[in-house]
Every structure is written in structure tokens, then in C-alpha cells.
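User: For a reading group we're discussing how well predicted structures match intuition. Take Glutamyl-Q tRNA(Asp) synthetase. Before you show the prediction, I'll give you the sequence so everyone sees exactly what went in.
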Amino acid sequence: MEDEKTNPAVTVKPYIGRFAPSPTGALHAGSLVAALASWLDARAHGGRWLLRIEDTDTPRCVCGADREILRQLDVLGLHPDEPPLWQSQREAFYQQALDGLVQRGLAYACGCTRRDIDAALQAQGHAHQRHEERVYPGTCRDGLHGKPARAWRLRCGTEAAPVRIAWHDRRLGAQAQDLTHQVGDFVLRRADGIWAYQLAVVVDDALQGVTHVVRGEDLADNTPRQIWLQRQLGAPQPAYLHLPLVRDARGEKLSKQHGAPPLALDDPLAALQAAAQALELPRVEAGEVVSWLSGATAAWARRWAIET
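Assistant: Thanks. Here is the predicted 3D structure of Glutamyl-Q tRNA(Asp) synthetase, as C-alpha cells, for the group to look at:
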């Protein structure tokens, strides 16, 4: 993992962006917004755009959804510059990263169940509230105390030396999080053996040379964890742009979990125009997809003051 790109504050050029859907279903209107924005940002910067299928959480993956996502992107004219990558084929890279962290004392085995964590938090006077982050109380930091290892966690500072992450988002501006007190030591590999999103995404972004991440603002809260992990692995820190979420009539984030329907692609241009509207781009008039994407790229460059 360690190479010449060791300074997390420096963006490495040339530009490399990526779109990384989970194959839990076909693309919907919300995921198209993220796909289009990441593609436009790469093209406006004269960079490369990669496609990564994030299928580590196998119980949630839908058979054939990855192929359908590839088909949808092809119809929409959003073609990656390299063959797609599947995370399910990259076990060795994640294990190597975890082993290195463990050897350096930066990660440790945890034997706690969710019930154990809730009991420990309650004993400390911090009863867990629904939809609230469980801040790991550090029970297994100094050993398993006779419990079998279940998960693996990354150390995130101490009371005496807390970890506070400050970062800048291209849309949201200055951001900060006290990782020690708001998150605690977070999971790198789950009790069921599945690699945690945080580890897989950081390892793959580093190995693929990703310099810019464009994604929905629901993932902004994950960014401090990823920056901290990047620093522990000696990986570069990408530039981040978190997009406004597309919401349904109830105000819920448009997602497969909330029953968002798959994209209707009988009119690809109409789907792209709707996504561009959600991104607050001016309407681009064009009769076919290729010319529309060219006009939308120019509009995106103006929107984000990108020199072309």
C-alpha cells in the first residue's frame, strides 16, 4: 500500500474518478445522478473514469444485478475507461491491508456482539438510541478477555489523544468530526467474515489511483473514517464531492431499500436530462446521447469552475 503517494493532503494527477455501485438491484434515478456526476467530473477534468462493482456484502447482492448495471450504463453512454473491477475478487488485497494494520498494532480483534456493546454503553450511561451511531466503548482494545474473536477494528485515538479529522468537500465546504468520541474504533472485517465497506473502498481507491470521489452526501459521514484509514495505510487522500440526495415523495432518500424502481431506459436521453436537473445543470438541448453528454460536460465544467 505504501508508495510515493504518501502525503494525504496532495491530490495526485492525472485525474482518476470512479463510480462504485453495489449490485443489490438495478440502477435507479438516484444512482444515475451519482453515476452521471462522477462521469461528467472525470470528463470535465480530462481524466479517466473507472467502474467498480462493490459486491463484498454478498447476502445483499442480487444475482445478475451487476450485469444489468453494466447494461444500463452502456445504454446511457457512460462507458468506463478500463474493464470493471469486482470487489469480491480482491480478498487478498484486503487481507494484506488488515494484516499490516494488525502487525503495527493499529487494528485488533474484537469479540463483542451488538448486545455486548449496548450493555457496555448502558453501563457508561449512554443508552443506544435508534438510528444513532454506536460508539464502540473499547472493550477489546487490550485483549479479548476470554471471548472468541468475531470482528476486527481500527484504533481511533484515546481520551488523552483523540482523533479529530478536518477535511474539505467541494460542495459542502469545511467539514470536521471527532472520530474518537463520535464513532470510536470501527470495524474493518465483520463477524460474518465480510469485509467492511470502509476497508474495501480505501484499499481499492488507493490501488486504482483514484484522485477524486464524487458520491451522494449520505456517505459524507463515512469520509472521516476513510481519511483516518488512508493515513494508517499510507494511502493518498482523494478530493471529495458529495452530491445532494434524490428523494421520493415522502422525503426519503431514493434507494433500493425504499423501493425505488429501476431506471426506465426506453428514452435514455430523458433519463440523463432528469439526472442533470437533479444536479442543477442547465438544460442541454441535443438529439442524441453522445452530443448531449458533450454539452453536459461543458455545463458541468462551468458549474464547478473547471478549466478545460
